[in-house]
Structure formats: C-alpha cells, structure tokens
Design brief:
Number of helices of chain A: 11
Strand content of chain B: 5-15%
Strand order of the largest sheet of chain B: 2-1-3-4
Helix content of chain A: 25-40%
Strand order of the largest sheet of chain A: 5-6-7-3-8-9
CATH class of the largest domain in chain A: Alpha Beta
Radius of gyration of chain A: 23 Å
Structural class of chain B: alpha/beta
Largest sheet of chain B: 4 strands, mixed
Order of helices and strands of chain B: HHHEHEHEEHHHHHHHHH
Number of helices of chain B: 14
Strand content of chain A: 25-35%
Number of strands of chain A: 13
Oligomer: heterodimer
Structural class of chain A: alpha/beta
Number of strands of chain B: 4
CATH superfamily of the largest domain in chain A: P-loop containing nucleotide triphosphate hydrolases
CATH architecture of the largest domain in chain A: 3-Layer(aba) Sandwich
C-alpha cells in the first residue's frame, strides 16, 4: 500500500542561507496519526507547510496520496484539510458563515452543520468569530479543515495555548477523524500530546529527524522505562561512572545538579543507590522515580529540554 | 484491481461521513462576495467613512461656500489729523457695509496686517492724499484695496466714465457645490478603492487568512473577482448617495445620464482597485501599506481638483496633472454630470483610468504574495 504522505530528502533554505529543513525523510501510512515533535524553531512548521504545498522546497520530493503538488494541485487541495498555526479568521463573520464560506470552496464538502455539531460549536453557530474564546477559535480552525471532508488532515500546533479541557476536546475530535479512516499529520511541542495522540512520531531538531517510531518504542529505546532522579547535598563526589555501575541502570545524565538514571527495574536500582549513598555518608536532597517520557527521549537525544524556548 | 481493503483497524470503524453537499463552479465566488459584503456591513467605521463622511463633507463645504455675499473686509485706519475726513468718505460710500474700519496707531496697524487681522492699512496723509499698505500676494488684500479705493474715489466725487451692467450668476450648475460634488465622488472612489482593496488584502495577509484560503481549492481569480465585485457594488451606492445628496439638498442639476455616470464610476473604481491591489501586493504589515497608499493618494488630493480647480497650478505641470487617474475621473464626472457631455467625448479620460488600472493590475498579479 503506498504511503499517504511521503517525502524524500526534503531541504529548505531561506534567503539568508539558513537551512530550516535539511534532508528530511518521512513516510506516513493511511489511517495513521503521525506527529512531528520538536522544540520551537526545529523546522516543524516549515516541514508541514512544504507537505501542505504552501511552501516550495529547495530540493526533495513530496508525494501526497500518490500525487505531487506540481501536477495535481487542485485535486490534492480537494482531498486535504489544513489548520495553520495561528490563522485569525474574519472576526465579523459568524461561525456558521465562516464554515459555509470554507465549504463553498470544495466540490463535495461535509455539511457545515454536521461539522458544527461534531466540534460542539452549535451553540456558537451564530456568534461572531471575534467573540469566541481561544479554545473555540481553535476548534473553528479545525472545523474549517474538517468541512473539506478530507482524507488527510494537517494540523500545525493545534492545541498551543489552549486550556486542558479544550485540548482534550480537540484530541477527541482528531481521534474521531482518524478512527473514521482519516490520516493525520500534526506538529506539536507538547510531549504528552504526541504520546497520547500519535501512533508514530518523528522527533525533529535543527531540521532533521533525530528519531522516529511509536512513542512506546522511542521510550523503550531510551534503555529503561523508568527514570530515577536524585540530588546529593554534596555535589563534589558526583561521578557518573559510579551510578552507571548500579544494577539495572542503562544510562546516566547530570543536569543542573540532579542526576537522572534511566532504569529498567527501579526496585533493584533504588536499594543499591541508597546503599551507595549510605556508605559514602552523603546526604540525599531529592529522590523521585517516574515513568520515562518522550521528554526524556528528547533530552537524551539533544541534551536540551523540549520547552527550552 | 483489488476491491477489498486490507483490514486495518480503521476500516472496521464507521466510514467517513458522506458529504451532503455538491458545490457548483461559482459557489466559492458567491460565498466570498457574500462574506465580503457582510463583513463590510458589520464594520461600523467603514460604513461611516465610506457612506457617512462624504455627504457630511459636502454639507459642510456646501453651506460654507453657499451663495453668500462677499466677505466683509476689515481695514486699519491709521490715526492722523486727516483720519476723520477719510472716515466720513467711507461712511458716505455705497459699499460701507462691506468695509469694517478700525482706528489704530501705525504700529498696531502694521502688526494687525502682518497677523492677518487687517486686510489693508489706510493711512491718510492729507485731506486729499491717502496711502495704502498691503501684501499683494494676499487675494483678500488685493480685493480690499480695490474695494476701499473705489469707495473712497466715488465718495470723493469720481464719476464713472464707462457705463457697465452686471449679470449675477448663481444658477445651479455654476455654484461651488456643483463643482464640489463630482470631486467628492471621485475622491471617495479613490479612497474607498485604495483602502477597500489595499487595506483589506494586507489585513488578510497579516492574519494569514490569505494563506489559509490558498490552502483550499479556492480559485484565486474568484477571490480577486469577489473583492472587485464588492467594490463595484459599493461604488454604485457611494455615487448614488453623493449625487442624490447634491440633488435633494442642494438642488443640483444632473445633466448626464445615470448610466454614463455609473460607467465612469466603474472605470474609476477599477483604476483605484488596481492601484490598491498593487500597493498591497507585497506588504506584510498594515503600517507599510498605509504609508504606501498615502504616498500614492497625496499628489492626487492636491493636484486632481477635488476641492479647487487645478487650473490654478502652473501651465507647465498641467499635462502631468491630467494624466493622474483622479484628475481623469473628476474631469469625466464633471463633464458628464454638469455639462451632460457624451461618453464618447470622455474616451481620453477613460483611457487614462483604464491604463492606470490595467497596468497596476498586471504588475500586482505578477508580484502578489498570497502567504
């Protein structure tokens, strides 16, 4: 089965010579929800806009539903729905008028009222867009994408700046679209969003894919599924080799005085860790253990945190 | 060819909702135009500046320059031993009601003249000698001089040597308001064309709405056509409103046909729409397009004869003035409305507007940035 979205050695450099995307390969299958995860400025938006046919790549090939943008632009536009990062729709139109306008661009759109219902916007159908809350505006932006009755949905940071409830509402909408057979490509810098929503994801940094796979596999690749974090009062005797030698430790990272151990079996590591602390008569200032997350994957791969802006 | 889908988890769930609509070729255009008109109708400021302001301006200027008698002139009469004689001469004059005199010393008189308080300083040097003092570059001073001199000479016994008769003309058609209304129509079409197209487009670009639109199958030509159509619809209302205002409030006589006036208006709207599009073709920010639009409009505000005839400018620059689109529009409107001249006679002016609009449009399409 051919991929729904495919790109090969994608590159994009801007006038100043900065390469925003350097040699990106992606292959997204039908019915998948695929995420591009990365910090701000990693090249996510440039990538998704090239895939959406809104930006011309400097080099590389893009195929959507087996077609290329250059030859089948109109047909492709009919089949994909797009929500851009921060579009401010006309404030003087109502929600329903906005959706009708967008529906009118497509040969066979979904009925605007169906979409209003699906996104729980019926109560606001006759309200001017200018009076909507941030969450409602974001839902309307996704509604303008869904009214296309698309086979592929592109969402650029769909939940940035939303409150938790609005985010969950949008996640549900995206899942529903994907359950109905649609393919989704979204960008995000929220790791929890990527973890919960995406079947597969690509972690992007400096315009390149630095890791790709299911969230579970990416976390498993980290070596351990748990993270033990601790800090000693006396920071001088902090030797990574010592911690690395503890049972069940796959990797060690020091960050801001804290040491993080990627651990497969915390019940073996923690007693051993406490033993060492006891023997050296050091003082433990802080100790936590948690499930490993995509954040840890990102930190491991880049040495930085996702949200370091 | 395989019909069966591989059983991915997705295919077991309910199918994509079936679309209930089928759109024809012009659905996008119709909705874009409808949306544009709705937006305009809901924008109170736009309504005021496009529809409310020009009639108010006409009203204000129309009453200010109504057929009132010429302004009274205020003169300074310098106090000398001969002043009372001159004063009595002025009092005998027929024009005395139009002359206001103030007796002051020489220094005050000079000050007042400099500040524009007095149009003229009259200094009696003897019972039969008077000296005038004024700035010849001030029209009101020149007028005052001839008026006062005439009054004094006549009162002192001068007899007219030439018999003259006067026919006063304040018929509809030759009043200031008749000149003004077509000029206001032209100016309004320029303002609303340039702002209505230029500002709207850059605003949409800044909001990334243009980018969002081109991310749909929307035809770009339809989008521009809808914008142009909304301008034409507004143009009819603008022209009708100002013309109706002139006719009903100021009893203006419209000699040309309404159809010709609308046609000229449409060509003007196209010209300024094209210029607005050009101004907006690359600007990313409202501020930059505002500056650009003002730079384009400023010379026409000054030179194109909106409020006063451009005949006052030096003959050397007259040909350039006539090549400005607003000059062409104003001249064509005045010729049609006030003189009832046929459209054929306006072909040169229509061509000027068409070229401005056409060239601007062609360049704009080449440079236009949707994102």
């Amino acid at each position: 089965m051919p991929a729904v979205i495919e790109c090969c050695d994608l590159r994009k450099s801007y006038d100043g010579g900065v390469e925003a995307v350097c040699g990106l390969n992606l292959k997204i299958e039908a019915g998948e929800c695929f995420g591009l995860l990365g910090p701000n400025g990693a090249g996510k938006t440039t990538t998704i806009e090239i895939l959406e046919g809104l930006l011309e790549p400097s080099s590389g090939d893009v195929t959507i539903l087996g077609h290329s943008w250059n030859k089948h632009r109109r047909e492709l536009r009919e089949k994909i729905g797009i929500s851009l990062q921060e579009t401010r729709l006309s404030e003087k139109l109502t929600v329903r008028e906005t959706l009708r306008l967008f529906a009118s661009f497509y040969c066979e759109p979904r009925h605007p009222d169906d979409v209003l219902e699906a996104l729980e916007l019926n109560e606001k159908a006759d309200a001017l867009v200018g009076t909507l809350s941030g969450g409602q505006k974001q839902r309307l932006a996704v509604a303008t994408a869904l009214v296309a009755s698309p086979r592929v949905l592109f969402l650029d940071e769909p939940t940035t700046g939303l409150d938790p409830q609005s985010r969950r509402q949008l996640w549900e909408t995206i899942r529903e679209f994907q359950r109905a057979g649609g393919t989704v490509l979204l960008t995000t810098h929220y790791m929890d969003e990527a973890e919960r929503l995406c079947h597969r994801l690509a972690i992007i940094d400096h315009g390149q894919v630095i890791a790709q796979g299911t969230p579970g596999a990416l976390i498993a690749d980290l070596g351990g599924h748990h993270v033990v974090e601790f800090a000693l009062a006396d920071r001088s005797g902090n030797e990574p080799a010592l911690w690395r030698a503890l049972p069940g430790v796959d990797s060690v990272r020091s960050d801001d005085g804290k040491t993080s151990l990627a651990v497969r079996e915390p019940h073996k590591t923690i007693p051993a860790l406490l033993d060492v602390v006891e023997k050296r008569s050091a003082q433990l200032e802080h100790l936590t253990t948690r499930q490993a997350s995509l954040e840890d994957v990102f930190v491991r791969l880049t040495g930085r945190h996702l949200r370091e802006d | 060819m395989t019909v069966a889908q591989p059983s991915s988890p997705a295919s077991k769930k309910r199918p994509l909702a079936r679309s209930a609509l089928r759109n024809g070729r012009w659905a996008g255009f119709r909705h874009l135009l409808g949306a544009r008109l709705l937006e305009l109708a809901r924008e109170r400021e736009v309504i005021f500046w496009v529809f409310g302001f020009p009639p108010l301006l006409a009203l204000g200027l129309g009453f200010a320059f109504r057929n009132k008698p010429a302004d009274r002139t205020t003169i300074a009469l310098v106090s000398t031993p001969y002043t009372s004689h001159v004063l009595s001469l002025i009092d005998q004059a027929r024009e005395r009601s139009a002359i206001r005199t103030e007796r002051v010393d020489r220094a005050r008189a000079a000050d007042g003249l400099r500040l524009g308080k007095y149009d003229l300083v009259v200094e009696p040097l003897a019972d039969d000698r008077v000296q005038y003092n004024y700035d010849p570059s001030r029209p009101e001073s020149v007028l005052s001089h001839s008026e006062v001199d005439d009054a004094l000479q006549t009162a002192a016994g001068r007899k007219p040597v030439l018999e003259t008769s006067v026919h006063l003309s304040s018929e509809p058609g030759s009043r200031y308001i008749d000149f003004l209304i077509p000029g206001l129509i032209g100016m309004n079409l320029m303002n609303s064309g340039m702002w209505g197209i230029g500002f709207a487009l850059v605003d949409m670009r800044q909001r990334k709405l243009l980018k969002r639109f081109v991310a749909t199958p929307m035809r770009r030509g339809d989008f521009l056509m809808a914008l142009a159509s909304s301008r034409l619809i507004l143009m009819v209302i603008e022209v009708g409103l100002l013309l109706g205002f002139g006719v009903f409030i100021f009893h203006m006589r419209v000699l040309g046909s309404f159809a010709s006036i609308l046609l000229i208006g449409a060509v003007g709207a196209v010209a300024f729409g094209g210029l607005g599009l050009l101004a907006a073709s690359r600007a990313q920010k409202i501020e930059s397009v505002s500056g650009l639009i003002n730079v384009v409009m400023m010379p026409m505000w000054i030179f194109s004869g909106v409020f006063f005839s451009y005949e006052r400018f030096p003959a050397l620059i007259q040909p350039f003035i006539k090549l400005l689109p607003l000059t062409a529009l104003n001249d064509a409107l005045r010729a049609t409305i006030l003189e009832g001249s046929a459209l054929a006679g306006q072909s040169g002016r229509l061509l000027v507007m068409f070229l401005w609009g056409g060239i601007a449009f062609a360049l704009a399409l080449r440079w236009f940035r949707w994102t």
